[in-house]
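User: Before I run my own analysis I want an independent prediction to cross-check against. Here's the chain; please return only the structure tokens and, at the end, one sentence I can use as a sanity check.
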Amino acid sequence: MTGPLLRPDARHSLRFQRDCRLLNAVAYRQVFECKPEPRKTTDRYWTILAAPNGGGSARLGLIMMKKRVKLAVKRNRLKRLTRESFRQHRHSLTGLDIIVMARQDAATADSQLLGKALLKHWQRLAKYSTPAASATLLPHG
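Assistant: Structure tokens:
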């Protein structure tokens, strides 16, 4: 077998569970009204805001406005893509509450391009995250 091996409990930790989501208006407001201003990163497809959450794990909130992305099928596709990308990279975003907002061009872009754009955002935001409590990967040996 090649590559790193996941511990049995690590597979469970990669799921997009309830504690990895912003669940209510108060949680979203804390990011929007963060003092000092929340970290903002933007490109042609996404606007992303991030604020420290004081906790250990990263949390994600999604805003896919009907005004920007007309069809529900496209909004749902963008949400699935964003959740999956976040799930794969959240270990590098610990201690942040993140809100991802789709821009109009995201509706017509292909998934690979959107995934690459999200990766660039995660890499920018990782600079502001707190160190992970423990690694989820074991060295291959």
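Sanity check: The helical segments are 8-13, 25-32, 72-89, 111-126.
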